[in-house]
Write a structure and sequence with these properties.
512 residues; alpha/beta; Arc Repressor Mutant, subunit A; Aspartate Aminotransferase, domain 2; 8-stranded mixed sheet; 4-stranded antiparallel sheet; 17 helices; globular; disordered C terminus; DNA binding; transcription; DNA-binding; DNA-binding transcription factor activity
Length: 512
């Protein structure tokens, strides 16, 4: 399709009087034209100025649509040449999402045949790992430290008492005593304002976000996420048919531009207490700005509080939800970091006016069970075992964090920055721009070391920083030094390669 023919075709279908925003109509039409082959691979799209003129719409609308299509892999922009349609006929798994840490077999066009476009886009961005334990896998607690004896004692008591009532589907919203225990725990430890009726038990943060998007968003709605951000939630949003808008972060957290603020999203997903993966804390001024903006524009905020129980140089920070007076924040968390990942119990604290709908939706869509596990968890939390366990392992993780920092400093002194080490279960080792962090992860994996590349957490590549996520919580103290020496042997070769360019070749300006 020639550019002028494209404009004519779009003009036939755009309906400015329909009530549907021009952005959403144009995005939907261009995406469909690419998918059905009307816009074949390699064709150049009209410039944003040209298309805006031909369609009598704002140029910013066209720019926004082109950017969204580029983020989702439908088009790519070539500097000075224009915007071109990508080849979507054969999707393969992105190398930075699979071979980067050797976690799963390469998907092929054959294995993806028959999947929907949403399904193929999900396959393009896989980030899971077939290996889930070892140095320096990020985001994992030390499950060996979990107080299993206390858990089994409670579990046996519940099995002996009246197991019949706990072997059916869960009540809407979850086991009532667990909802009460979670509410009390969050109110005291995280300054969350909640009643038990506002707590909805889920299988984790992924499910909480899934039900939130189903109940609060239409397909095509815009969602703000932090850039960089956690690949799991990012992929969930993209595969749900939402327009994901990556917003940069700075030292105070998410930082929307004036241009971003002029286009309010439906949903804003943030990690204010410990930004993932960089680790900064959202400032009070930025929190107030975000809450005020959400109130004025009717946006919903999802506060992902995934590991804020583990702060090493100060007390855990109050939640964003605790500052929310308008009822715009949904607070989500889980016990994966504080207890053990396989438990698969999470929670969301929902504004009171929509809490019944969320409880009903979880029961209707997922037919939740685990009543026995929920009952044991309720007593475990209520009787103080969780608080005691968190205090104990926080001290242990602080020791391991210090050993890892010592190992880094011993080898690199101050030549490499350490980022985001004040809290959580991982830190980020920043790398020079010339270093390929994805390739380092591949080579380290082959030597038994699991690290993740920081660059893979960015959606907007010009913002991309190079680095490695190093988890330390589940690495035994005596293993930290030897494991880091193996990683350093891989890393040194890549750093040296950039410092000593081939004869006759100058090193790129601004790089070390």
């Amino acid at each position: 399709m020639k550019p002028i023919a494209l404009a004519d075709w779009l003009q036939q279908w755009l309906n400015t009087g329909s009530g549907e925003p021009a952005y959403r109509q144009l995005y939907r039409l261009l995406r469909q034209a690419i998918l059905d082959g009307r816009l074949p691979s390699g064709v150049r799209l009209p410039s944003s100025r040209e298309l805006a003129r031909d369609l009598s719409i704002a140029r910013n609308t066209v720019i926004q649509v082109y950017e969204q299509l580029a983020i989702e892999g439908y088009v790519h922009a070539a500097s000075g040449k224009g915007t071109f349609v990508e080849d979507t006929s054969q999707d393969t798994v992105d190398s930075a999402s699979s071979a980067a840490w050797g976690d799963h077999a390469q998907a092929t066009g054959e294995s993806n045949r028959g999947l929907s476009m949403r399904g193929r886009r999900l396959m393009d961005r896989l980030g899971f790992s077939r290996r889930q334990y070892g140095a320096f896998m990020a985001g994992l607690p030390d499950v060996a430290e979990f107080p299993a004896k206390a858990w089994l004692r409670i579990q046996n008591k519940h099995w002996r008492s009246s197991p019949g009532r706990l072997l059916s589907y869960a009540a809407a919203g979850g086991y009532p005593p667990l909802r009460q225990a979670i509410s009390a725990y969050l109110n005291s430890s995280r300054s969350v304002n909640s009643k038990a009726e506002q707590v909805v038990v889920t299988t984790g943060i992924h499910q909480a976000l899934d039900v939130a998007t189903r109940l609060l968003c239409e397909i095509g709605d815009t969602v703000w996420i932090e850039d960089p951000s956690y690949w799991g939630l990012r992929n969930l949003l993209i595969s749900s048919g939402l327009n994901v808008e990556p917003i940069p972060v700075d030292g105070e957290g998410i930082r929307p531009s004036q241009r971003d603020l002029r286009r309010p999203p439906r949903l804003i997903v943030v990690t204010p207490s410990h930004q993932y993966p960089l680790g900064m804390v959202m400032s009070l001024a930025r929190r107030r700005m975000l809450l005020d903006y959400a109130r004025k524009h009717g946006c919903w905020i999802v506060e992902d509080d995934y590991d804020s129980d583990f702060r090493y140089e100060s007390r855990p920070l109050p939640s964003l939800q605790g500052l929310d007076s308008a009822g715009q924040v949904l607070y989500v968390g889980s016990f994966s970091k504080t207890m053990y990942p396989g438990l698969r119990i999470g929670y969301m604290v929902v504004p009171e006016r929509i809490a019944p709908a969320f409880a009903s939706a979880v029961a209707e869509l997922y037919r939740e069970g685990q009543m026995m596990t929920q009952s044991v968890t309720a007593e475990f939390v209520r009787e103080g075992y969780l608080s005691s366990h968190v205090r104990r392992v926080r001290n242990l993780y602080a020791q391991r964090r210090a050993l890892l920092i010592d190992a880094i400093r011993s080898h690199y002194q101050d030549s490499l920055d350490i980022i985001g080490d004040e809290a959580g279960l991982h830190l980020v080792l920043a790398l020079p721009d010339h270093v390929d962090d994805v390739e380092i992860c591949r080579q380290a994996f082959d030597r038994g070391i699991m690290v993740r590349p920081l660059s893979d957490y960015y959606l907007i590549k010009p913002r991309m920083r190079r680095g490695l996520l190093l988890g330390y919580a589940q690495v035994q103290q005596e293993q930290i030094g030897p494991a880091f020496r193996i990683l350093a042997s891989v890393l040194d070769a890549h750093i040296a390669e950039g410092q000593h360019p081939a004869p006759g070749v100058s090193a790129p300006a601004g790089r070390t």
